[in-house]
Amino acid sequence: MSIHLPLASDRVRYGLVLFVATSITISSVISSPETTMGHADFCTQSGVICFEYGPFGIIKADKWGHGTAYAILTATLAYAFVDPVRVNRRRRLTLSVCFAIVFGICLEFAQWPIPDRSMSELDAIANAIGAFLMAILWWKLRAAKPDNDEVLS
Asked: Is the pTM of this model over 0.90?
């Protein structure tokens, strides 16, 4: 099975990467109401729904959020690197994953001096897992097509 995506212009593809990376950066460095007032107090407010754990009730919800964000970043990077980079898709996908992981580690270090934020190895691991899982999915969805096709390269 493969998914056919239209190949947008370089400007659109890299703009999408910039948008996703900026969104992740902003949500990583600003203090949320939950962190400033405490999880328990924040979750008891009217109209607020909090999930302590994600699907399957094993992994905390924030780790699911980290993994999802970095899976999306990896997907946008892989899509951005489709056409202009004249290297094989394994290298492009590896580059996408490496960039996402390094970006995540840098943001974890950037949180260290910020009040109400903290650097977390578990967050960095969740980021990396999300990036790797997206790379595997991308590879599997793309495996049926030749390298020179413009479909999920």
From this structure: no
